[in-house]
Amino acid sequence: MGRTIRPLIGAWWVIFCHHPTSRAKSMRRSTRLTRLPTLSPESGSALYALYLRPISQQIEYSGVSLASCLDAVGLPLNLLDHEAPIISARQFLGLLREGMTRADEPALGLLIGQRLLPETHGLLSLAAMQSGSLRETVAILEAFLALRTQLVGFRVVTRGQRVMLEIRESHPLGALSTPVLEAILLAIKNLLDAVAMGETGVIAVHCPFPAPPYDALAQDLFSCPVRYRSRTAALVLDAAVLDRPLRAAQRDAFSAATAACQSALQILAETQSVSADVQRLLIASRGRFPSWAACARLLHKSPRSLHRHLQAEGSSYRGLMDQVRMQFALDHLQSGRFTVAQTAMMLGYTDLANFRRAFKRWRGQTPASVRPHPGKRTV
């Protein structure tokens, strides 16, 4: 597939310093930001070590060899020895899939979410824990969740006396949508509980999938009603609690943490590459890929200019297309819900033999070999 492109998320470690200030924006230049080396993901977002370690711990507690799971997705065991390892979204989802399959634990997403303690989220946790109200906490999450992951997006919707904190996929999660959404919903619920000292006003959790066999565990861990087959994943809050003052709030610390988040987000935006823009367009097309000329037009560039930008970044339109097609193909085939022929058709291949050859070139194995065997549990 040629050279790898820059990740959609850069690897940033934000060193937080207390600087008293009346306005968060005035602190952007004084906040120290240190860039760390990254592992170049083949596709998708980079994820922080903050999440890799608790996920790995839960996989091991489930009685599964962590080394075998890491090896299956091309990650070294000593990755956890690094101070700040970075893995791609593809590797993260692969690790989660391996853990669920090998442990035969369908509730792994929930168990991981429970392990993501309120302080797990680094700078985001610092800002949230110093909020003056839950409304400020929610605003912090909406503005800066991208600093932790771009697998999902976060949106706040007010409907009368109810406030919906909606979680939407921004990266194709495929069959792993349920465990990822469960983990994120529970982690955010636990963070809100910690900020408000247990009085969050979260009155329900909405999940866009059928009730799982471990529904009783979900109700227990969320400590509120969990409703399934909803339109979107969401935490539902009582609007009346959002403006109650929080006792633990420290304004100087909140301003400093918010300023650091803003600086990190600004740097993140500046590191987004043209390759990443093309990749997002291809992912959003869900198999109905735009032509080279249409892609250039959508990015307000001429085809020649787009070619020069991609070439300078060590990538190409065909290489990016192959990356996205490979990920879509893996998601569909490993789910066990689609045949090889159906997958080829959804990716725009009219000749099944061409799809098989392309897949062999991408992965070094046949499409049929990655589908679950009869009787084997799939996730």
From TrEMBL:
Keyword terms of this UniProt record: DNA-binding, Transcription, Transcription regulation
Pfam families attached to this UniProt entry: Arabinose_bd (PF12625), HTH_18 (PF12833)
PROSITE patterns documented for this protein: HTH_ARAC_FAMILY_1 (PS00041), HTH_ARAC_FAMILY_2 (PS01124)
Signal peptide (UniProt feature, chain positions): none
A single GO molecular function term of this UniProt record: transcription cis-regulatory region binding
Gene Ontology cellular-component annotations: cytosol
Residue ranges occupied by any HTH araC/xylS-type domain in the UniProt entry: 296-373
Protein name, per record: AraC family transcriptional regulator
Species: Ahniella affigens
